[in-house]
Specification:
single chain; about 325 residues; alpha/beta; TIM Barrel; eight-stranded parallel beta barrel; two-stranded antiparallel ribbon; 11 helices; about 20% strand; globular
Length: about 325
């Protein structure tokens, strides 16, 4: 049916009609807030490349988690930042490591909140890579045991979900086995199954202090040109025991989110990464865009593509808009 018999504008005539026919909804329940934990007390180090975000000591992690919960945000994902680094990333799986302390801080402040932890070694290795380095190469298989030890240590500290972001082959199966052997069968795995070697990670590297000392991460993170490979990676992680599949970054890979949503029956997460956040903040500061409107449009686009869960530095700002 064509104009004048068909008039799509009839369904746009008022806010009430528009809300009734809206196809995609964004809820605070879709949001996860990333937090960066650092040693000390009373620490809140602003992250220059991530305006409004900061590295926080555990006492301030408590306060931020409680504030997020009061806004309706159901979950946080924790990253650890430490100056004590070594080739085997021993601080990653140390019983009283910074992430382990932050887990306990959040659980103490908000027992009901879902605590997710990033499981990787790059913040804790002196070379900044996500795996063990042998003769200048990332040793995939030697890395798996350390990743599993890290995940188990997080579960022991109280994490209800672990999120391996390293992109080593076989790590989901190794982590699942390690968790199950220690009795943590209820701890879920949200796998960074489809993580691209992206230009949008720059601000995160300032926040986490994990820039590689040599080379880059292209031997383990994915080529941005590939989409069929994304399906293979995700399918492997599903078979190995992942409970949720994640795509990172989000905006440049909305097509990948949609493909996963169409082809898999697991929940799909997407990470609205630091560079995506920083671009909107920078343009808004210049007065070139309406920052709040761009934020909400961006998050809605990720939901529309098919993501059930969105990890985003905008979580608290978006929650305030959604509640407002």
């Amino acid at each position: 049916m064509l104009f004048p018999d068909s008039r799509p504008r009839r369904l746009r005539q008022s806010p009430v009609i528009r809300s009734m026919v809206r196809e995609t909804s964004l809820s605070v329940n879709n949001l996860v807030l990333p937090l960066f934990a650092v040693p000390g007390k009373g620490v809140a180090n602003p992250i220059n490349a991530l305006p409004g975000q900061a590295q926080l000591s555990c006492d301030n992690i408590k306060k931020k988690a409680k504030e997020a919960w009061d806004l309706g945000i159901p979950a946080v994902i924790l990253f650890g930042v430490t100056e004590k680094k070594d080739p085997l990333a021993t601080q990653a799986y140390k019983k009283d490591g910074i992430v382990q302390q932050a887990i306990k801080a959040v659980r103490d402040a908000v027992p009901e909140m879902l605590v997710i932890t990033d499981v990787c070694l790059c913040q804790f290795t002196d070379h900044g890579h996500c795996g063990i380095v042998e003769k200048g190469r990332i040793d995939n298989d030697a890395t798996l045991d350390l990743l599993a030890r890290t995940a188990v240590s997080h579960a022991s500290a109280g994490a209800q979900m672990v999120a391996p972001s390293d992109m080593m082959d076989g790590r989901v199966a190794e982590i699942r086995e390690g968790l199950d052997q220690e009795g943590y069968t209820d701890v879920a795995i949200m796998s960074y199954a489809v993580k691209y070697a992206s230009a949008f990670y720059g601000p995160f590297r300032e926040a986490a202090g994990n820039a590689p000392e040599f080379g880059d991460r292209r031997t383990y993170q994915m080529d941005p040109a590939n989409s069929r490979e994304a399906m293979r990676e995700a399918s492997m992680d599903v078979e190995e025991g992942a409970d949720i599949i994640m795509v990172k970054p989000a905006l440049a890979y909305l097509d990948i989110i949609t493909r996963l949503r169409d082809e898999l029956d697991l929940p799909v997460a997407a990470y609205n990464v630091s560079g995506e956040y920083a671009m909107i903040k920078a343009a808004a500061e210049k007065g070139w865009i309406d920052g709040d409107a761009a934020m909400m449009e961006t998050l809605l686009s990720i939901r529309r593509a098919g993501a059930d869960i969105i990890l985003t530095y905008f979580a608290m700002e978006a929650a305030r808009k959604l509640r407002g």
